[in-house]
């Protein structure tokens, strides 16, 4: 009878050990497949989030917001759009006859009057920037000093992100 009990104990022990091995194997198999799945989805997310760029050269994009003040009579140096999944960035860059300080005041006043929430600002004599949000749009204005000619005093870059 003792021999039968020992045999049953051994069988129970072997079955318990087998169950533990199966559970551990299943856990690692699940973990590995989850990591592979994550890596695969992260890889495709990275690929699908690469923006499509459209260059407009020296023309303002047709869908650039018309209420943003642009200096009259100055040429656009560059303009482009970046199309991300679910959002679009429109950027224009132009040379200005106004100083960094004058442009900063102009765009700070514009953002305040038009109801933009300004969340980040930086102001100095050579480089200034403003960042604001309104509804589903973000705007970044960067103004830098230019001393290439007497008629050009600064360069203005305006980027609008439409979500």
Q: What is the highest CATH level, the class of the largest domain?
A: Alpha Beta
Which architecture name of the largest domain does CATH use? 2-Layer Sandwich
General shape? elongated
What's the story with the biggest beta sheet? 7 strands, antiparallel
Q: If you compute it from the alpha carbons, what radius of gyration comes out, rounded to the nearest whole angstrom?
A: 31 Å
Q: How many structural domains does the protein architecture include?
A: 2
Order of helices and strands: HEEEHEEEE
Average of per-residue pLDDT values: 82
According to DSSP, the number of beta strands is: 7
Biggest sheet, strands in spatial order? Answer: 1-2-3-7-6-5-4
Question: Roughly how many Å apart are the termini?
Answer: 78 Å
Strand content: 25-35%
Structure description:
This protein is α+β, with helices and mostly antiparallel strands and 163 residues long. The mean pLDDT is 82. The longest helix has 47 residues, at 2-48. It has 2 domains: 1-50; 52-162, TATA-Binding Protein (2-Layer Sandwich). The chain has helices at residues 2-48, 100-113, and strands spanning 52-57, 76-84, 87-96, 117-122, 127-134, 137-145, 154-162. It is elongated and about 110 Å long. The protein has a 7-stranded antiparallel sheet with strand order 1-2-3-7-6-5-4, with helices on one face.
What keyword list fits this structure?
single chain; 163 residues; alpha+beta; TATA-Binding Protein; seven-stranded antiparallel sheet; 2 helices; 7 strands; 37% helix; elongated
